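Single Protein Entry

Contents — chain, fold
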Amino acid sequence: MYKKIIFIVFFLKFNFFCFYALSSEKIYFIGHLYGAHGEKNIPYEPLAKFIKNNPSGLLILGGDITEDANNFHKFHYFFSKKNILYARGNHDENLYEKVKYWDYYNYRNFNFIHLDMGIDMNFDIKKIIDRNKIFISHHVFFNNIFEYFNPANSMHNNNGINIEATDFGINNIYLAGDCGLYKFGYSYIETEYKSNKFICTGLGSGWSENAYDINENKPVFFDSDGKIIKSFCLLTQGKLNNQIKVCLPYHFNSIFVTIKFYRTIYFKK
């Protein structure tokens, strides 16, 4: 009798542990992977240390993997044992001759849709009319929703879509990985519109590095040693009755970005 009880208790504990381990696996979306222009380390050191310090079940990489596409093999080899989805950035050229292309990917309770775009950012707009999905791209095709903040690193001769005229479906998240790069740029910015969330994120500022934690639905900032640090957010109201949020780490340089943020509001509104 006691043996049966012990077996049942062990069985329940084992299954609970397995369920907890699977359900708590982190999923990170990270943009602009190579860091700042001229970065020599592949992969970018803060990124490599963050990944080492923070195990994940899935990494979704939002483009510009390396500044020179010929160096991609160095990056891919370093992360060869990781579960990774790649989105192509303007620096990545023929990426899908090197790794498998993907359209849809289901992981745990999340459904991801890939919006691969050429340099002109054209794609099938009907693809985004859905619900309860997470859309992945490099180019910030929804850049206009952030108005005068204009966080995208480059729009590549394309101003993006007409936000008000576009049907985005409902309860979706749109993640773009072409922010970051500049020291005092906006490395993480988000807004909600028509019951959908729009986010642009990326590495390369040198102090405001971040990843988007899909499980927790929030940005995670980390220092040059890959250690997670505390953050805060600045808020303002957009013209489409949408709240625009810029998030920053607790760092001395955040003072300058905060001044820039409020100066932009004062002079542009």
The radius of gyration is 20 Å.
